Amino acid sequence: MTKTETVTTGDGVRLWAQRSGRGATPLVLCHGGPGLWDMFDDVAGLLGDLATVIRWDQRGCGRSEPCDGPWTVERFVADLDAVRRHFGLDRTALLGHSWGAQLALHYTLAHPDRVGTLVYVSGTGIGPDSDWHGAYKENQRARLGERLERLVLRRELTDTPKRDEAREREWAVLHWSAEFPDADRATEHAERMADPWLGINSACNKRLNAAARRVCGTPGLYAACAGLEVPVLIVDGAEDIRPRSAVDSLERALPHVTRVTFPQAGHLPWVEDPQGFREAVGAGLGPG
User: Fewest Cβ atoms closer than 10 Å to its Cβ: which of 9, 31, 46, 128?
Assistant: First the structure.
């Protein structure tokens, strides 16, 4: 049974949330972005017999109430805790993807007693952006190939004072198509990500990315990860355009970590290897 609910945060912002699945283990999903919305339909379906899956749209994004922030890591950690409390969970497993992996990690560091397992999917580690961002842009250009010129043109047309949702969606689909190594199906997969189209919160994206960058690479973050007693499963796609070497910094720091890398998967490994993803996450969650 799927049930949609409204979570009210500590500062009164209303968040969209949905519970589904029948497994004994509670599992809260944290979507990527920042500034996007939950796109975990396939993941919820894959894991629904292994866990009770809770999805939510982060503040000011997707189906959640529009708001003006604040766009800080601390505020988003507090929002995630409001989701946990709303569903009456003393402890939960967390699965975060991309930016959501960073959010789930920061939550786990802040509240280790409230997390049973952290599943860290397609994140970029805890080192500075300079460790990986340049290579990421190079890989993106190579993956896009002849589509790159269209992407640049669409970005120029989208960056206008008057917002054009159709152009923004077309830009996003082009941009996201680079996340999939199978060129023949990349646009199809990216179109699925954009359906339904709920719009990108650009202010959230820019400010929260900047806030997260200020933390990465700091001695305090390395030390906190080194002292984390929660088991962590790192899940990667070897064909992700973000260099997987970026995540080595996190893997080295954690005392209780398992890493699974799918050789033919990109940034959304459950798309290219759904069965492998299900098995890896199921093993990470343990017996329900």
Answer: 128
